Structures are given as C-alpha cells and as structure tokens.
Amino acid sequence: MDIRPLDPALHVAPQIALEDVPALKTAGYAALISNRPDGEEPGQPDAATVRAAAEAAGLAFVHIPVSMSSLGPEEVEALRHALDTLPGPALAFCRSGTRSAILWALSQAGDRQADELIAAAAAAGYDLSGLRSQLG
C-alpha cells in the first residue's frame, strides 16, 4: 500500500484492495474515506463492497465520491464533517490519492495557512501549488 500522511488525522492512498482492509485496522486506522465514484474504472470495488469490508474489520466508513468536475463546497464540507466526527486516524483514498489530498486541503482552508497545506501535500508527493488562491 502506498500510504502518505497529510497530517496526524488523515493519510491518503491510491485505491486500496479489499484484502488490505484488515491490515489497515492492524496498522491503527479507525476509518476509511472513499473518494472514488462507483464505476470510475473497471474492476474497482464499489463503495458498498468496501464499506462491508471496512465494517467487518471494525473500521468506520464514509463515501464522499468526487471527480475533478464535481468537487465543490458540498464535498469539501462532507470531508470536514467526516474528519470532525469519525474516529481517527482515517485513510482517504481515490484512484491515485490526488483528489483525496485536494479535498483535504480545501477542507482545511481557512483554518490553516495555504503554505502549510501545500507543504504537507508536497511532503506526501502531491503538488497542490496550483490551488494556492483557493487555500487562502
């Protein structure tokens, strides 16, 4: 698994495999956040299947599907709410981890400095410098 920390409460990753879910629980994660729309790619497990695996392993699960064209204030607020209410730490995933990192940064804008968010994402391997104006 290619897990990348953004902050202590949230790490991001590319698509996880169902067989990885028990290991995520063992690694200390308390929640999974899926940012992939169902059917985005052939062979990807749908949210209901990932939810069942997460719950069987004792993990909380939230599905906040986003695409770059559908990422808006509702999705940002949904992630903010999830981070405020889910047990942590949480692992968010999408196809590559990039959308999850973008969604996280946008959910933290206003509470944290843009440079801090961009640096955290860069340390995790995601270039969010193009979002500077949206991050405050």
Q: What layout of secondary structure does this protein have?
A:
Elements: E1 4-7, E2 10-13, H1 21-26, E3 31-34, H2 47-56, E4 60-63, H3 73-85, E5 90-93, H4 98-108, H5 114-123, H6 132-135
Parallel strand pairs: 2-5, 3-4, 3-5
Antiparallel strand pairs: 1-2
Helix pairs in contact: 3-4, 4-5
Quick summary of this structure?
By secondary structure, the protein is of the alpha/beta class. Helix content is 40%, strand content 15%.
Question: How do the SSEs run, as a string of H and E?
Answer: EEHEHEHEHHH
Largest beta sheet: strand ordering: 1-2-5-3-4
The stretches of 5 or more residues where confidence is low (pLDDT under 50) are: none
Q: What is the percentage of strand-forming residues?
A: 5-15%
Q: Tell the overall outline.
A: globular
From the N-terminal CA to the C-terminal CA, the straight-line distance is 32 Å
* Average pLDDT number: 94
Task: Report the oligomer.
Answer: single chain
Number of E strands: 5
How big is the Rg?
Answer: 14 Å
The largest β sheet comes out as:
5 strands, mixed
In terms of structural class, how would the helical and strand content be classed? Answer: alpha/beta
Indicate the percent of residues in helices: 25-40%
